[in-house]
Amino acid sequence: MNTIVEPGLVADLPIPSYTPAGNETQIFELAWQNRLPLLLKGPTGCGKTRFVAHMAARLGLPLLTVACHDDLTAADLVGRHLISGEGTIWSDGPLTRAVRLGGICYLDEVVEARKDTTVVLHPLADDRRVLPIDRTGELLAAPPSFMLVVSYNPGYQNLLKGMKPSTRQRFVSLSFDFPAPEREIEIVQGETGLDGARCAQLVKLAGALRALKDRDLEEAASTRLLIYAATLMQSGLAAEDACRVAIVESLSDEPATIAALMDVVRAVFG
Ligand SMILES: Nc1ncnc2c1ncn2[C@@H]1O[C@H](COP(=O)(O)OP(=O)(O)OP(=O)(O)O)[C@@H](O)[C@H]1O
């Protein structure tokens, strides 16, 4: 899903809360001030999107988010001619709109996009900071406030889907990981209002499940899933049921694995 925070609305929206792990907010601000593009790497659901939303709101910038996929074409990013009653009209894609607005364009899971699509980012992501729009002949210069941010999950990466070095080496890179336990408890509690004791149990469960990654599970339990479970618990669902539907069933389809994971849930909440 692509989302757009329009400039007129920026001032009216509350700043999405973000609990930092280190000096990533300072790095983001310095990259923005110095017109450097940023690459965020990290597992799914660990806070990359929230971080970008937080920083965009803090800096008062419009944010245009694109969820990349393997059918994404350069025209989806840059724009295309559309046929209307009055003939053909040019319609900006989200990347072009972000450049015109001087906002942030956030490309989530950029490795999913085809390599010929990501190549359109090159002149924008280096010191030229321009977007050539081949179909209209326009060469759009990015205003100083424009910033390109991309993210990817190295866990999903395979040999075919790696990022081209020529793309990758145009970005300042920040690594994200799941929050340390104290911080994750704070995040889960802040997002859901669930009591500290049960938030701590959920974080303990996440630690136990994350230890199974690579051995029994493809993906680790994300902070997002803990928040789902905590939300259901805060609404009155029993911990075991909440963990089953929000965490365990999202991690595996294998009955034997699900049963083993539920044993871990019972050991933590029993
Ligand atoms: N540091 C944090 N501060 C506040 N909330 C956080 C933080 N980290 C994670 N969250 C919570 O976890 C949820 C998932 O995080 P987010 O959507 O940012 O993950 P992501 O890394 O962008 O995942 P994906 O790669 O799947 O897009 C957020 O909606 C938010 O509720």
TrEMBL record:
<dbReference type="InterPro" id="IPR013615">
    <property type="entry name" value="CbbQ_C"/>
</dbReference>
<keyword id="KW-0067">ATP-binding</keyword>
<protein>
    <submittedName>
        <fullName>Denitrification regulatory protein NirQ</fullName>
    </submittedName>
</protein>
<keyword id="KW-0547">Nucleotide-binding</keyword>
<dbReference type="GO" id="GO:0005524">
    <property type="term" value="F:ATP binding"/>
</dbReference>
<dbReference type="InterPro" id="IPR027417">
    <property type="entry name" value="P-loop_NTPase"/>
</dbReference>
<comment type="similarity">
    <text>Belongs to the CbbQ/NirQ/NorQ/GpvN family.</text>
</comment>
<feature type="domain" description="ATPase dynein-related AAA">
    <location>
        <begin position="37"/>
        <end position="171"/>
    </location>
</feature>
<dbReference type="InterPro" id="IPR050764">
    <property type="entry name" value="CbbQ/NirQ/NorQ/GpvN"/>
</dbReference>
<feature type="domain" description="CbbQ/NirQ/NorQ C-terminal">
    <location>
        <begin position="184"/>
        <end position="268"/>
    </location>
</feature>
<dbReference type="GO" id="GO:0016887">
    <property type="term" value="F:ATP hydrolysis activity"/>
</dbReference>
<dbReference type="InterPro" id="IPR011704">
    <property type="entry name" value="ATPase_dyneun-rel_AAA"/>
</dbReference>
<dbReference type="Pfam" id="PF08406">
    <property type="entry name" value="CbbQ_C"/>
</dbReference>
<dbReference type="Pfam" id="PF07728">
    <property type="entry name" value="AAA_5"/>
</dbReference>
